[in-house]
Amino acid sequence: MCRFLCYKGPQILLADLLYRPQHSLILQSFKARERTEPLNGDGFGVGWYATNISPTPCVFTSLTPAWSNQNLRRLSEHVESSCFFAHVRAASPGMRVGEENCHPFQHHRFLWMHNGTIEGFWQIRRRLRASLPDQLYDAIQGTTDSEHAFAVFLQLLGDTERVCSAKEMGQALVLTIAQLERWTAETGSSAPSYFNFAVTDGQSIAAVRYVSNPALEPASLYYSVAGKHANERTVVIASERLNEDSTDWIRVAPNHVVTITQELTVNIELMDVVRLGSKMSPP
Amino acid sequence: MCRFLCYKGPQILLADLLYRPQHSLILQSFKARERTEPLNGDGFGVGWYATNISPTPCVFTSLTPAWSNQNLRRLSEHVESSCFFAHVRAASPGMRVGEENCHPFQHHRFLWMHNGTIEGFWQIRRRLRASLPDQLYDAIQGTTDSEHAFAVFLQLLGDTERVCSAKEMGQALVLTIAQLERWTAETGSSAPSYFNFAVTDGQSIAAVRYVSNPALEPASLYYSVAGKHANERTVVIASERLNEDSTDWIRVAPNHVVTITQELTVNIELMDVVRLGSKMSPP
Amino acid sequence: MCRFLCYKGPQILLADLLYRPQHSLILQSFKARERTEPLNGDGFGVGWYATNISPTPCVFTSLTPAWSNQNLRRLSEHVESSCFFAHVRAASPGMRVGEENCHPFQHHRFLWMHNGTIEGFWQIRRRLRASLPDQLYDAIQGTTDSEHAFAVFLQLLGDTERVCSAKEMGQALVLTIAQLERWTAETGSSAPSYFNFAVTDGQSIAAVRYVSNPALEPASLYYSVAGKHANERTVVIASERLNEDSTDWIRVAPNHVVTITQELTVNIELMDVVRLGSKMSPP
Amino acid sequence: MCRFLCYKGPQILLADLLYRPQHSLILQSFKARERTEPLNGDGFGVGWYATNISPTPCVFTSLTPAWSNQNLRRLSEHVESSCFFAHVRAASPGMRVGEENCHPFQHHRFLWMHNGTIEGFWQIRRRLRASLPDQLYDAIQGTTDSEHAFAVFLQLLGDTERVCSAKEMGQALVLTIAQLERWTAETGSSAPSYFNFAVTDGQSIAAVRYVSNPALEPASLYYSVAGKHANERTVVIASERLNEDSTDWIRVAPNHVVTITQELTVNIELMDVVRLGSKMSPP
After folding, report:
1. Which residue of A has its CA nearest to C144?
2. Over the stretch B222-267, which tens digit does the pLDDT of each residue have?
3. From CA D152, how far away is CA D128, in angstroms rounded?
4. What's chain D's average pLDDT?
């Protein structure tokens, strides 16, 4: 269980979202409010796009806590971006704290974050890895369920070189969850998995709020849209509201996907259960 | 504000005190109960004596949090000692997180830990440093009030090569506080300073619980004595009780000094106000 | 390509071998003489046995260079052992520098170090991993060829809970190389692999010096025996001679296995080619 | 002794100077050619100006070696600047390796780097510190001679808020050296000090190549100017030539100051001996 944040809109200083809000992500690294445990001190990461320089994002991660990292503070005060992801980690029990396990994970143009736990991950890990093509298998550097889920997503998305739409990314998120659930089901486990994922290619963003047991509440997820006209619109997706009294924060309903298009249109859709139930070709 | 622990007694595994108690020091690194803020995640340190090998302690520190440090966990399961100190740090605002600022601080045979804050430290720092002999001035590696207080203590203790008694160390602790208070008073500041210090030379231990404003409660400090006979006695001094329901933990009264002699005799004494009030020769 | 050192004999201070020799392992971390590149600055590790405390070794690793690590220096001056391994790493291109990739690797009672490179490791990695039982598959934390080779060794050794002899460990080393060579051969690669491995269970030690192409010189490996009587005998195996003028250092001949028994008997044997050629059941 | 690099010119990707040249600064972190010891692996730092965002530079430092730092690699491929400093450190004996001791040091708009050693620094340190105003005294975070020299420079430069010219910065560099030499002389030491300093306020740059004993060769320093017209001119100052066969690299003569104005005019001047000999008001 971690906390994360996605931004798309006009170019802004990273610090404006990471440090300055009343309940900023950096504050959430030790005072998260919507988790039982307020601490997310097992490293952090931020990935931003400087589209005039490169289509791939710049990723900065560290295994030290976000609240005391001077490099993060200085970068945040000097880097502007129109699309970035940030994540503060609470490592699952038994998972190493190390840079290789810090979110956001990157693959070519894509960034990926996860807040949650794949139940029984150790039971499905070999099967999951066996399903991957060499290129994605070899790209995995760490041991987290999150990074492995990213590899599944990338395979389901298909060719990662072409430009894809927010809708396609959202659909691939749903397929990823379906695939992970199917593998977990085969283990006979009935414990719940928490899947709050966020992904971007620097143009569009998709995120999902989901828990496998419908009787449970998924991990918290909100979004906020500001600006009337598309060219001044800013969209933030975040695990927790960045300020308390704002009426601007909308809670993402359970089992819904949020997508932000290149043109900053925001869509919220119930996850496609047909897809979830559909058969995928077994690996 | 931090949390710390001192042990003297028969040789035991570090893990037996650092990890295994219900409310262990490692747990206190993120779930301290007797501070407003439960988090002590700005690095840690442990110093132990292997008296058959060396009169100086072995110090292991890290700027990463204690709860996730695999080296600490492995060392704790493989190192035994009859005298050791351990500390989990919550850096004061503006103080760097780095190994140079991790407790316990070491000088020759001595270890030093602090839980608290010297009010107005930045106002008195130059004066404090000017009072030190070159050897102690040059030994300071970091920027904390704690390490500077250690240098004052060592100067007041005098020749640090000779063996000194628990009582002498306790008296030097009181003199150190008196000196720091006098300098602070000169700045006109009336904000309170918190001085929970612990010091050892590997033979004896002295610790103090003190706040400069008598109307306030000092930071928490407890001790526990087990074993009827001196040769099987174990003494622990700790910021928080390591187990909840124990009747063994005794709260150190405000403004009292705890000393543990080489023979494991424990004394609790009210701080000597005459000393506190006495004039020291100005540096 | 890295540098390593194994010690077995009477209890000694780690620093006596790591720091004090004229051409110590710590010096080799930046001034190795028998590699083209003198630098081994990509982290380090030391693992030692405190047999009165635990049958498993204590491992201390860091991703920072050995030459400047203050924790290593202090530990080395305060820890004694009668059996320890130490390693300074030069990461192969493309391999992450991180604690998860630092040698010695540990599994239960065993420590493992590697100096060399498995040619075409990325081509055989999936096949190698597929051959492992879950317990060994899941134990792999990093991405190095070295740690993967360790898992192959452990599988070939069989039950890792029982006590095994130096001879058995030496044989399992040869089988491990044979297995790795067979997989590499299947990839069609003809580039040479370098396999200087060392392994211990805390009682016995086995090490091997091998390069797959007999026309080439394997990475350097030496051993040194001191003390006439078994009860005062000390044996060191090291990538480089720790002092220059000593006549005590014997170069391990190519394709030979060195074993040190519990009783400190040293054997040097040519690798068993029959075993190397024998068929293993394909995974 | 370290290696450093200064850039001023049109906006370029940091990687174009840090990684891509044949003999790049990153290569110099382990294969420096113009030092007896090729290794500069005790941490690194880079500071760049994003003048549209802030007049203060963004500094990124790490105590790990530059050659393996993935954050540095990624930042360098995604950050462009028209003025930046970079430094790879070889810690002087006894100096801690830690972020607080990494160059470039920053104070408000200024960046500072040093390649060399102030002889007898420990003898003059207290005197040096005593001469500083509180603001500069308190700003010192580490223990290096380099950072202390920076504080002396800032004091000699005077008001650090106003815009100052390259010439003024060059003069203050000379005054700084004169002051340090005077203090050193008082200690009776005759061992040589090496003072290759570089400083910038983001607009202008000044650097100096100096050794206190004229019979000796100062540490190496070069500069290179490309582009005929001022608006396309690029200037690099570097400890070593970034490519071997270039005829573009000019060795800075001993005891000379290089200045680069806001308009990218490069001046080389012999250090003003009158200034060096002149009396400064004693602190």
Report:
1. A141
2. 999 998 777 789 999 999 999 976 678 999 999 999 999 999 999 9
3. 8
4. 93
The alpha-helical segments, DSSP class H, found in chain C are 14-18, 25-31, 70-76, 121-130, 134-139, 145-157, 166-186, 273-277
- Picking from C98, C137, C141, the nearest residue to A126 by CB comes out as C137
ipTM of this complex prediction, to 2 decimal places = 0.94
Return the residue in D42, D123, D140, D141 with the most chain B beta carbons within 10 A, the one to mutate for interface testing: D141
| Residues of B in Cβ contact (< 8 Å) with A63 | 64
Give residues 26 to 85 of D whose Cβ lies within 8 Å of A: 50, 53-54, 56-62, 70-71, 74-75, 77-80
Considering only the beta carbons, identify the residue of C98, C125, C126 that sits closest to A99. Answer: C98
Chain B contact probe: residue of D105, D143, D147 with most B CBs at under 10 A: D143
What single letter denotes the amino acid at residue A111?
Answer: L
Write the CA distances from D117 to A67, B143, D171, integer angstroms. Answer: 35, 23, 20
Q: How many angstroms separate the CA of residue C126 from the nearest CA in chain B?
A: 28
C43-48 mean pLDDT: 98
Residues of chain D contacting residue B99, judged by C-beta atoms under 8 Å apart = 98
DSSP string, C186-227: HTT--S--EEEEEEE-SS-EEEEE-BSSTTSPPPP-EEEEE-
Identify all chain C residues contacting D89, using CB atoms and an 8 Å cutoff. Answer: none
Read off the pLDDT of residues D188-198 as tens digits, 9 standing for 90 and up.
Answer: 888 899 999 99
Best CA proximity match to D267, nearest among D205, D214, D210: D205
pLDDT of residue C279 exceeding 70: no
What's the pLDDT tens digit per position in C121-177?
Answer: 999 999 999 999 999 999 999 999 999 999 999 999 998 788 899 999 999 999 999
Sheet holding C205-209, edge to edge: C105-107, C110-117, C194-200, C205-209, C256-260, C266-270
Q: Which two tokens stand for residue A176?
A: 């990823």
Count of residues in chain A:
283
Strand D44-48 relative to strand D80-88, pairing:
antiparallel
User: Which chain A residue lies closest to D11 (C-alpha atoms)?
Assistant: A53
Residues C242-256 as b or e (16 or more Cβ within 10 Å = b): beeeeeebeebeebb
CB atoms within 10 A of CB A273: 11
CA D39 to chain centre: 18
Query: Mind giving me the DSSP string for D119-181?
Result: TTHHHHHHHHHHTS-HHHHHH--S--HHHHHHHHHHHHH--SSS---HHHHHHHHHHHHHHHH
Question: What is the rounded CA–CA span in Å between residue D128 and residue D138?
Answer: 13
Query: Do the Cβ atoms of B222 and B238 come closer than 8 Å?
Result: yes
Those residues of chain D that have pLDDT short of 70 are 245-246, 273-283
Mean pLDDT of all residues belonging to chain A:
93
CA gap A158, A135 in Å, rounded: 12
Query: If you measure CA to CA, which chain C residue comes closest to D62?
Result: C64
Q: Which of these, D266, D171, D255, D270, lies nearest to D219 by C-alpha position? A: D255
- The set of catalytic residues of C is 2
**Cβ–Cβ under 8 Å, residues D120 and D128:** no
Does residue D244 contact residue D143 with C-beta atoms inside 8 Å? no
CA distance C250 to D167: 63
> Nearest C-alpha of chain D: how many angstroms from C68?
7
- Which residues lie below 8 Å from residue B16, measured CB to CB, with a gap of 6+? none
How many whole angstroms separate alpha carbon A143 and alpha carbon A100? 8
The residue type of B184 is: T
State phi, psi for B17 to the nearest 5 degrees: -105, -30
